[in-house]
Specification:
heterodimer, A: about 300 residues, alpha/beta, Rossmann fold, 5-stranded parallel β-sheet, 4-stranded parallel β-sheet, 13 helices, 9 strands, about 15% strand, B: about 425 residues, Urease, subunit C, domain 1, TIM Barrel, 2 domains, 8-stranded mixed β-sheet
Chain lengths: ~300, ~425
């Protein structure tokens, strides 16, 4: 397995399959009454978060603990050395000096995990960097889709919303295309630039045109500040044209799924009732996220003996 | 010793069209003789066989950082870097702290340059007070100061207010001075980290569209037409801007332009590993833009190669990409990149490179003792080896800063001697690197 996980670009179809398969067996193990595995006993994982996060940080923390690693949480907030002006590099070197084995990093600046990986010996896992990538989110999404359709090849996925600012979209497109899925990016042109066709995805400006044809409708969070930037006239108009409501759900194939990386803006990209339909697997995504992160820590830190065990 | 005899080199002087093997005798700071010289017994002889003897290079666009950021560069260190790179004149950009928007500051920069004495430091003045684009700087006073400012710019920013541009251009006409623009529409470029295109989309970095540069270039060309002012477009980087300049020149407007070595050498693909040393403004563009810039340099649309030498402290560059300031140093790699990227592939001749690096920028800036190699002229000379290769090792730079994306590159074209006012200011820029 790779030393770092910075971008979905690094992962071949074989890599992804191995990560998903490992997650699958770990998921079975953690459904037992005693959920802990000893694999990473004595190893230290640091969550280094320069942006607020709930589910990703907790998910990584729990994943590391289930594998018996020691976990440090470092939030670069007003109470930390970062507030005193410590640079990213010095913070990284400080953690390195304490002997951490892996750094899980979230940062608002695209590329920060890749820069970090050049400064430290520890493994670096990208937990979301700017508008660049969020590979563990993509892997858990691939896992969730594969669980339903058994195979990712040929699955039709519409990713709807703010593609231009979304690291989730970038990682998902790369992962889905690598696995042979058909991806369509949907939203207004201010949020779905033509350049996205260079990623091997289709672009559509109409959700109504694609909704009846897709196996997965993946909704992205539409941040309220995008309205202030004049990327669309109002959240109301966005919801009317690109939101998933029950009328549009009624046009979906019977077995098609609704997904969302969270946190949701109910009433904007997703109607409140839609998020609670059986075809909505948003909470499964969360549960699968734990298994995916365990899988990655296991494969990246467990060493060859752990992998073969 | 009264001087130097530069013997047996290929003398390339675009100002006179000379390109032939000749000896050059320097006596008392002047070019005493060019030709076949046998009678120079007391001059130090410099064997220039296989070397090019050209007028010293003139950089139209240098950030010397003094006053204000002497940790990044000083007039002394920038002068040394310039001499090492074969330059005998640099135009000092005014975005210092304080901004060079008054006679006292440009005079200070000019005087410090003379005190250092390695190159002619030619101060540019700000167009507006504090470079805020609102109130006119003390333009006439700067022109009439000993610094004799000729080029005015708010470089670092484009001037957004078109009425301010018009008024300033009109005013500059009285002095036949140059309005120089950093073409960047602030609203379109806001928050931009790199060129907007496939790569910025893929990397999740906010892009600066080519249109942000081209809109302002087009506006300024129209205002130059309206006012009759001389216009110089700084560091042009897109195919569209090159075409705008080409058209303006064809119409007979008094428009000149420069391009940097990095904009003809590398593209936005260099950003793929998020190296802050590749962050620069205007940003590295696409292959098509690089081709257009090279064609513009070849056909004369672009008059000058200018470095936009922009030193930054290590701690400023060694941080998150989006927090790092834009800019790269360039004085000590300019010739090597020009030979490697323009001459070796056959785009420009040696004489054309010398013209873009020396004769033409000297003419634009009105520097009558630069850009030519004539008998009786001040001996501002660069002697370079067009075939020697060397490896870029930033720790050997004379500049105080190291922010270059060309670390480790092997370049062809090496400065061997630089003479400023007849004194040797640099020898064998890179000889100590040969072992690397």
């Amino acid at each position: 397995m790779h030393k770092h996980l910075l971008s979905m670009d690094q992962l071949s179809a074989e890599d992804i399959t191995k990560i998903l398969d490992t997650a699958s067996s770990l998921r079975q193990m953690t459904s037992r009454p005693i959920k802990k595995l000893p694999t990473l006993r004595g190893r230290t994982v640091c969550n280094l978060f320069y942006e607020a996060s709930t589910r990703t940080r907790i998910s990584f923390e729990l994943a590391a603990k289930r594998l018996s690693a020691d976990v440090i949480n470092f939030a670069a907030d007003s109470k930390s050395s970062v507030a005193k002006g410590e640079s990213f590099k010095d913070t990284a070197w400080t953690l390195e000096a304490m002997g951490v084995d892996a750094i899980v990093v979230r940062h608002g600046s695209s590329g920060a995990p890749e820069q970090l990986s050049r400064w430290v010996q520890a493994s670096v896992l990208n937990a979301g960097d700017g508008a660049h990538e969020h590979p563990t989110q993509a892997l858990l999404d691939l896992y969730s889709i594969r669980e339903h359709f058994k195979d990712l090849e040929g699955v039709k996925v519409a990713i709807v919303g703010d593609i231009v600012h979304s690291r989730v979209a970038r990682s998902n497109v790369k992962g889905l295309v690598t696995m042979g899925a058909d991806v369509t990016l949907v939203g207004p042109p201010t949020l779905v630039p033509q350049q996205a066709t260079g990623w091997g995805a289709e672009v559509s400006y109409s959700l109504d045109d694609v909704i009846s044809d897709v196996d997965v409708c993946y909704l992205l969070r539409v941040q309220k500040e995008r309205q202030a930037e004049q990327l669309f006239p109002s959240l109301r108009e966005y919801a009317a044209i690109w939101g998933l409501d029950s009328k549009r759900v009624a046009k979906m194939k019977p077995d098609a799924l609704v997904m969302h990386p969270g946190p949701m803006n109910r009433g904007v990209e997703i109607a409140a009732d839609v998020s609670e339909l059986p075809r909505s697997i948003i909470l499964d995504q969360v549960a699968n996220g734990l298994a995916i992160r365990m899988s990655l820590l296991y494969l990246m830190l467990g060493g060859p003996e752990a992998v073969s065990a | 010793m009264t001087g130097y005899l530069i013997a047996g080199g290929r003398v390339v002087d675009p100002s006179s069209g000379q390109d032939a093997t000749a000896d050059v005798l320097i006596v008392d700071g002047k070019v005493a003789e060019i030709g076949s010289i046998s009678d120079a017994a007391d001059a130090q002889v410099i064997d220039a066989k296989g070397l090019i003897v050209s007028p010293g290079f003139v950089d139209m666009h240098t950030h010397l950082r003094e006053p204000g950021r002497e940790d990044e560069e000083t007039i002394a260190s920038a002068s040394a870097a310039a001499a090492a790179g074969g330059f005998t004149a640099v135009c000092a950009m005014p975005n210092t702290d304080p901004v060079a928007d008054s006679a006292s500051i440009v005079e200070k920069v000019w005087a410090l340059g003379r005190e250092v004495g390695l190159v002619q430091v030619v101060p540019a003045g700000a167009l507006s007070k504090g470079q805020k684009g609102e109130k006119m700087a003390d333009i006439g006073e700067m022109i009439q100061s000993p610094a004799k400012v000729r080029l005015f710019t708010d470089d670092g920013h484009g001037v957004q207010d078109s009425l301010f541009v018009r008024r300033t251009m009109e005013y500059l006409v009285a002095f036949d001075a140059i309005y120089a623009e950093h073409c960047e529409d602030a609203a379109l470029a806001a928050g931009g980290q790199m060129h907007e295109g496939d790569r910025s989309m893929s990397l999740g970095l906010r892009g600066v569209p080519a249109a942000a540069e081209e809109l302002m270039a087009a506006r300024d060309i129209e205002l130059a037409r309206l006012t009759g002012c001389r216009l110089h477009l700084l560091h042009i980087s897109t195919a569209g801007t090159v075409e705008l300049v080409r058209k303006a020149k064809a119409e007979g407007l008094r428009v000149t332009a420069e391009a940097t070595p990095h904009h003809f050498s590398i593209t936005d693909s260099a950003l793929e590993n998020f190296d802050p040393n590749c962050k620069v403004n205007p940003p590295l563009r696409t292959d098509d833009d690089v081709r257009a810039v090279i064609e513009g340099l070849r056909d004369g649309t672009i008059d000058a190669i200018a470095t936009d030498h922009a030193p930054h402290a290590l701690e400023e560059k060694d941080q998150e990409f989006s927090y790092a300031p834009p800019g790269m140093v360039g004085l000590e790699t300019a010739l090597g990149l020009a030979i490697t990227k323009l001459v070796e592939p056959g785009h420009l001749s040696i004489a054309e490179v010398v013209s873009r690096m020396s004769t033409q920028p000297a003419a634009i800036l009105g520097l009558d003792q630069q850009g030519r190699l004539a008998r009786g002229a001040t001996a501002n000379i660069c002697v370079f080896d067009p075939a020697a290769t060397w490896r870029v090792e930033p720790s050997s730079f004379r500049s105080l800063s190291r922010n270059t994306p060309f670390r480790g590159w092997e370049l062809t074209g090496k400065v061997v001697h630089t003479f400023f006012e007849g004194r040797e200011t640099s020898r064998d820029q890179v000889a100590e690197l040969e072992s690397a």
